[in-house]
Amino acid sequence: MPTDGQRDRGPDDLSLGFMRRALQLAQQGQGQVEPNPLVGCVLVRQDNIVGAAGHQRFGGPHAEALALAEAGAAAQGATAYVTLEPCCHQGKTPPCSAALIQAGVTKVVVGARDPNPLVAGQGMAELRQAGVEVIEGVLAEEATRLIAPFAKLMTQAKPWVIAKWAMTLDGKLASRTGSSQWISGPESRAVVHQLRGRVDAIVVGRGTVVADDPLLTARPAGPRQACRIVLDSQASLATDGQLFRTRDEAPLLVAVAASAPQKNRDRLARHGAEVLVLAGDDPPERVRSLLDQLGQRRLTNVLVEGGAGVLGAFFDAQHIDEVHAFIAPRLVGGRAALGAVGGQGLSEMSAALKLQHVTTASSGEDVHVHGYLV
What we know:
Blueprint: H1 4-7, H2 11-27, E1 40-45, E2 48-54, H3 63-71, E3 79-84, H4 96-103, E4 107-112, H5 122-129, E5 133-136, H6 140-146, H7 148-156, E6 160-168, H8 186-196, E7 201-205, H9 206-212, E8 227-231, H10 242-245, E9 252-257, H11 262-270, E10 274-278, H12 283-296, E11 301-306, H13 308-316, E12 322-328, E13 356-363, E14 366-372
Parallel strand pairs: 3-4, 4-5, 6-11, 6-12, 7-8, 7-11, 8-9, 9-10
Antiparallel strand pairs: 1-2, 1-3, 12-14, 13-14
C-alpha cells in the first residue's frame, strides 16, 4: 500500500523517486565495474519495488539481470527503471533487453541512451518491437553524468581525467622553496585516498616525485589498484625512491618524450618501470598521446595530482573533465610560489572555463570544491 506521502504525490514524482533510487544503486559500483558503465535498475509493480540492483563488478551480471533475479515472478507486468539503455548485444553477459522481454516486463523507463555503438538506441528499439512501452530521458542529465567516463572512452577512446589539487587560500600549491606538506588537513587527504582507490591511474610529474617522494597508493586500499604514472620527458627520474621500492605492490609507468636518451629509458626499465614513449613536441601534445595510449588499454578514470606544470599541460590540452580542489585556510605568499594550474593558460578572463554542477563542502578546516568542465 502507498504511504501517506505517496498519496500526496503524483505518478511523475514516484517515477523520479524510483529513478533516483536506481542512480544511487548504480553509484555503488564505482571502482568495481569499469570499463563497464555504472548502471542501476529498479523493478516496480503496483508502486512497490519488487527488485533493485546495481551493476556490481566487471564481468558479473548486469543491473537488470540482478534486479530480475530478485523480483522472480513479480517481474511479470512490472515497470523497469534503468539508468542506462538496456544492452542488446552478447558480451560477457547475455543481452539485458532480451532478459526484460522474457521476464514479462511491460514498461521500461530509461535515464540515458547508451553511447556504445553496439547499442545506441537499438536496445530501446528491440524493446518497443516486442511490445514493451519505453520512456526515455527521465533524469537524463544525472544519468548521463553518471556514465560520462564510459561515454568518453566509447566516443573518444580516451579516459576521463580527474584533476585534484590542494592549495592555500592565496592559491599556492607550495611555498617559494617548494614545501607543500601538508597544505590540506587529514580529512581532505582521506577523500583523496578514496579517489585513488577507484581510479585506474594516478599521474604526477617528475618534480612532484623529487619534492615529495610519494607512494601514490590508496590508504586504505580501495576497489582498484591504480597504475602510478610519472611524466618525465627525459627519463631522468632517480630510481631509489618509494615508487621504485614499491613497484611489486602497484604498477609504475614512466612516460617520456621521444627525445629521451635510450640509456635513460633502459635504466628505468631495469629498475622495474614500464617506459612509455609519448609523441609530441610540447607538453599538451604529449598529454594527448598519453591519453590515447591509456585509452587503448581501456583505462576509464585517471587522477591527475600535479604539480602545476602537469595540471597546466592537461588544461592546455583541454582534457580536464572533473575537478576536486581542496582550499586550506592558510596563507603562504610569495611571487615565486607556484599557483595551482600552470602551462600557457588562457589570455582573456572572458574565456575562463567555468565549472558545472559545482558542490562545495567542509572537509575538516578545508573547503572541498567539486565540479565538471564538460
